[in-house]
Amino acid sequence: RGCTDIICCVLLVVAIVGYVVVGVVAWTHGDPRKVIHPTDSRGQFCGQPGTPNDPLGTPDISMWNPGPSPLPVSPSLQICVSKCPDRYLTYLTASGNPASLEYYRSFCTPEYKGTQKAALNVLKDRECPAMLIPSTPLARRCFPAIQAKKGVIMVGNKTTYEDGWGNHRNVTELLEGAKKANVVLETRQLAMKIFEDYTVSWYWIIIGLVIAMVASLIFIVLLRFLAGIMVWVMIVMVILVLGYGIFHCYMEYAKLKGEAGSDMSLTDLGFQTDLRVYLHLRQTWLAFLIILCVLELVIVLLLIFLRKRILIAIALIKEASRAVGHVMSSLLFPLCTFFLLCLCIAYWASTAVFLSTSNEAVYKVFNESACPFAGQTCRPETFNTSNVTKLCPDAQCLFAFYGGETAYHKYLIVLQFFNVFMFFWLANFVIALGQVTLAGAFASYYWAFKKPDDMPAFPLFSAFGRALRYHTGSLAFGSLILAIVQVIRVVLEYLDHRLKAAENKFAKFLLSCLKCCFWCLEKFLKFLNRNAYIMIAIYGTNFCTSARNAFFLLMRNIIRVAVLDKVTDFLFFLGKLLIVGSVGILAFFFFTQRIKLVQDTAPPLNYYWVPILTVIVGSYLIAHGFFSVYGMCVDTLFLCFLEDLERNDGSAEKPYFMSQDLRKLLKKTNKGQPDA
Predict the structure, then answer these.
(1) Which residue segment(s) compose the domain that 370 sits in?
(2) Is 511 found in the same domain as 390?
(3) What is the mean pLDDT of the chain?
(4) DSSP class of residue 44?
(5) Residue 408, in any domain of the structure
(6) What pLDDT shows up at residue 122?
(7) What gap in Å lies between CA 577 and CA 503, rounded to an integer?
(8) Domain presence at residue 331
(9) pLDDT band at 165 (very low <50, low <70, confident <90, very high)
(10) What is d(CA 430, CA 432) in angstroms, rounded to the nearest whole number?
């Protein structure tokens, strides 16, 4: 073996060095507090050490009153307060009442000196908001406490409010500004209930995931010894599980017949945050019943038409079982890949946050009369001594937004794009490294004439070392091509999001076609890369040669590929379905307190679907991790099997390396050589 695709290896190293530099620069300039904590009108954080502000930030709720034709419009006054206002009150009213003024003082800026200044001047100098409205804290910000009573929109039990300038307004004017805030508030309430469910059920969730892991491990161990029986048992069990699901859905559907409100359609009900409401509708259980019936029918038909090919797939699974049995450490290798992917995700996410918070506080000149400096950038430290205050006496230097005018800030979008691109490249590289390592280990099993005597002592570590020493460049090349396509797909999704409101139907059609084409291209590249990595692990050739050889080898055996490989994938899918379905049904009966033996043990929940879905998703990921090793083993042995058939003829000079069972199945023999 020799080093392959050296140029791509060097390019990857240079890109990683550049990525580290970008991360260091981002961590130097960024401040994640800008994402979490609100600021006042000066850009100072609320409730942070080293600042004179209190924990909460409140936007000036009089921002709908633009004032006397400001040029440009003055930004909303933001003040840090210790708590949100709980009553209607205007400054003009409070200034004539000492008790009210003392309450109002907590919502003014530190420059406010009480009644030493006229009320109108206080409002003009933006030392206090013009009015207060009953508000509720959300994400450390105060939003109007909007509520609906009998279809009437109210804030603090009132339908009108005074805007602080003598005008009475309807609270519906606050609705548009706080609509998104109310959605967020409802979402937060839902999230809090979900969090409560997790706090009382987390250990049961862990037990469910452990059961899924043990079931997956037992299933794989049994496959090693009883592959044929396990496959048929698995098929029967999946059919029975789906059959029980059909029976349960029908019973629930029949039980709801005649109950009040059960005949309401899903469209009439609309979206509900409490998903348990849908389980009281007959239409919900009818939809589940139809889906399960269709799935059951499809599986039965596939089994009928592919019954002869299943026997060949069983032979491949048995061979894969023996290979995994000799390389048991391969079952734990996905944990290494998962750990490396977590590092990639963590680095990308932290860099993205620091880049997005690298902007500096930008201050602009705001004036309520004509001023030539209005809208220009200013510095609060030197503003009072500048010519601006001389020419525009009522001008103010106020915080406008976070931005910057340096070269670094101008190219932030480029750095963010580079961050996304490097994430895809490194993530694909990690996945490729895992695939070529497993392929190398299983290929060493297949090409050992005397199994396992001719295998390396540590096949997995040997394959991992070969991959890093000789084929880093090839892995970088394959992952680079895939990363480019994935970045293009991200750009297309972004353009599609921006063009949703557009009326150009041709542009939407063209964009949809491009999205479909690049989706297909990504799927094809993943399939090609996977088989190319297997050829790299076997022969040590470069990426292009390996991809070409793998592609034409598969094309020459397209029928075997379509039947044997895909039938095996289908059987693995059934295995995942059996494990996830069994654990999911067990979790359903437990958390809904339908198992009498442990009925009192199940914790009380707001939404019992929260732990059930968590167990189902976790079980699928665990089963997928175990079966992905098996899938890579079958794919590797399949390519080795095809190469063996094409390169060897069973003679003494070119004996078959396949196992005795495979030779018997294909009616092949080794002449003059003892069976392996």
Answers:
(1) 361-403
(2) no
(3) 79
(4) P
(5) no
(6) 80
(7) 43
(8) yes
(9) low
(10) 5
DSSP β-ladder status, 131-132 and 360-366: unpaired
Residues with Cβ < 8 Å from 549, sequence gap 6 or more? 535, 539, 541
Alpha-helical runs (H) found in 118-171: 119-124
With bands split at pLDDT 50, 70 and 90, how would you rate the model's confidence at 217?
confident
Radius of gyration of the chain (CA): 33
Assess whether 325 and 377 both reside in one domain.
no
Nearest-angstrom CA–CA distance, 532 and 530: 5
Q: What pLDDT is attached to residue 612? A: 87
CA distances for 184 relative to 39, 134, 139, 143, 173, angstroms? 20, 18, 9, 11, 19
Q: Is the dihedral of CA 609, 612, 618, 621 positive or negative?
A: negative
- Read off φ and ψ for residue 216, nearest 5 degrees: -65, -45
Please give the Cα distance from 474 to 81 (Å, whole number): 58
Dump pLDDT digits (tens) for 488-536.
999 998 888 877 766 777 888 888 899 999 999 999 999 999 999 999 9
Q: Is residue 28 part of a domain?
A: no
Residue 81 in tokens: 């307060």
Q: Quick one: 238 and 369 in the same domain?
A: no
Give the pLDDT score at 139.
65
231 and 380 share a domain? Answer: no
Verify that 114 and 233 share a domain, yes or no. Answer: no
Same domain? 607 vs 641: yes
Number of domains in the chain: 3
In this predicted structure, what is the pLDDT of residue 526?
A: 92
| 610 within a domain of the structure (yes/no) | yes
How many angstroms separate the CA atoms of 645 and 448, rounded?
16
Q: CA-to-CA distance for 437 and 534, rounded, in angstroms?
A: 9
**74 vs 266, more confident:** 266
